[in-house]
Known about the structure:
elongated, five-stranded antiparallel sheet, Thiol Ester Dehydrase, Chain A, alpha+beta
Amino acid sequence: MxxxxxxxxxxxxxxxxxxxxxxxxxxVYLEWVLDIAVAHWMHAAPxxxxxxxxxVVRRHEDDYxxxxxxxxQLLLRTWIExxxxxxxQRRTQVIRAGDERVLVRALTTWCPIDVNSRKLRxxxxxxxxxxxxxxxxxxxxxxxET
Length: 146
């Protein structure tokens, strides 16, 4: 059975991420969820797929579990949980690196759009292969530092 390929990104909470209460603003978490999804696509998909497809959000859900504060190191982790004919369900977690506590869990439903026609395009096997591997082929998460 195919295993989802996990993509990870590390970051440090900066002043511009904070709200008036001194913790990361909920809209910033949403930006991070969207940004890591795009980064995963750019990392995993070959140029010809990236050139032909755009992704749009159909639905987005966040569960906020705890706050992140200035200077904390965070790990953003994302993977495709389910792929239907016209959608991908992507899971994302924001994890505090210090204690490995999950701060935010997100579920986003993405739809592929043909760049030229601007219409929904079925998820091809080539696209699926970018995000899933057979159990023996599953790679360690890719990590980036900012």
